[in-house]
Please model this.
Amino acid sequence: MPRRFRLTRRFPVAMTEDGYRRLKKFAAEAGLDEGEALSFLFENWSSVIHHDNLTHRLRLFNSELEDRKR
Model:
């Protein structure tokens, strides 16, 4: 029997425009709203990411972060 889908947490999130556009595109392609899409991604984190790619992309993002904030 499937678990009931309940949104139990709400929190303010600051996202880049590129990140938000990509989230909206992913959600639309999956037939979900943005909150459901984020829940799906984080509930299935270990199966939807590639660890080596994540580490590399995170390093790049962090190295550019200060410049992007200006």
